[in-house]
Specification:
The chain has 450 residues and is an all-alpha fold. It is 66% helix and 1% strand.
Length: 450
Amino acid sequence: MPKPAARPNQALLSVSALFGAALVLFGFFQDTPADIFQGLRTIVTHEDVLITDYIAIAGMGAAFVNAGLVTLISVLILKLVGDPLNGATLVTLGLMAGFSLFGKNIVNIWPILVGTAAYAVLKQETFAHHVNLALRATALSPVVSFMALRYSPWLGVATGVLIGFLMPPVAEHAHRVQNGMNLYSLGFSCGLLAMMLVPAFKAFGLEPQSAHYWSTGNNCLLGWTLAALCVLFIAVGLSRNTKTVLKKYWALLHTSGRVPSDYVRTFTPGPVLVNMGVNGLIATLYIVLTGGDLNGATIGAIFTIIGFSGYGKHAFNIVPVMAGVLLGSLTNHVELNNSSLQLAGLFGTTLAPFAGVFGWPFGVLAGLLHSSVVLQAGLPLEGMNLYNNGFSGGLVAIVLYPILTSLVKRRRPVLLEEDLFAMFEQDTPQAVEELPGKEAGEVPEAPSAD
């Protein structure tokens, strides 16, 4: 009997499992086991609304152990359901690892996963078809914690199951209106659902409130650790056939990043690892150079950028958006090192496709708009949607995209996979503009990474 064909990019899960284990190990180097277990208890008995930096409420050891355990749980789920490993897998794992430093924990993610699994059963579809969405929909895990801890554990479980069940149809339709220009598409979907839930809670006398737990003083330790991790990514990516990897990475830098942009499938893991390392260094330097704080929330954002380095983000399209947020700090009458603007500078790169499709000045414009919108858009949600920047990015994308499409004539096309491979034989990046592809005004037909 012939053996089943191995899934491509199988090493993604093995490397991700090692990453999760490394997070756990790093945590145990920071605190004693007794402090870590007490910290984990604090994490799972906290409401977890934005912004709840686990380093601030439970200590660095417990925060990283929680992140590592959630990452390992996610890897195991992806393996068991037979997820087709690609750039979307990296996105999911980056989000799970990152947000497990400030909002997701080893307890509050499960009801939402069960709810999406129930939806798959009802639709007579495999859970593998929805697993990435299910894991990412845990952006609404604070709702589970809030209902369970404030009122009843069973009410928290029931609410989480309902969220997981409703998210697939909401996400499917919300994705279309964003035209592939908001990489955190599911953040917009979660924001819409939270817009329904939070007012309903208040109508019944429940009063969710946002929080602000924000640790400081760890930039040296966490900065050097992140730098070492990113350099390791780059070194591993370049370890085989350096010339080819660099050539593919150069081609990757000249893609738009618009959804769908599965860099793992198109460029192979080597260039993607280089992209992950470079983007992680850029994000870390952004926080350090702007006087920000490396903590659970900002490292969560950096892990998210690293994850999306396999699906849409690269140095050429994230830097303009970051510059736009910097510019916005001058007009918003808010200090640049304000916690919300620190996160906006990192998570705002959800709008990177604007720089990729329309050019860097429009990436700056998108970042400028985002820096204002994100400060207000999340207020009605009371911290219940962890992907607040994804919600704000969706609003910006829905308004800005049709305006630019009607006014800007020169746009980078959405290239087909075979066109990207053709770039590897070209010596000049200008070949990107000459290659055929779908017009930038068309909505991509491929499914979202969500």
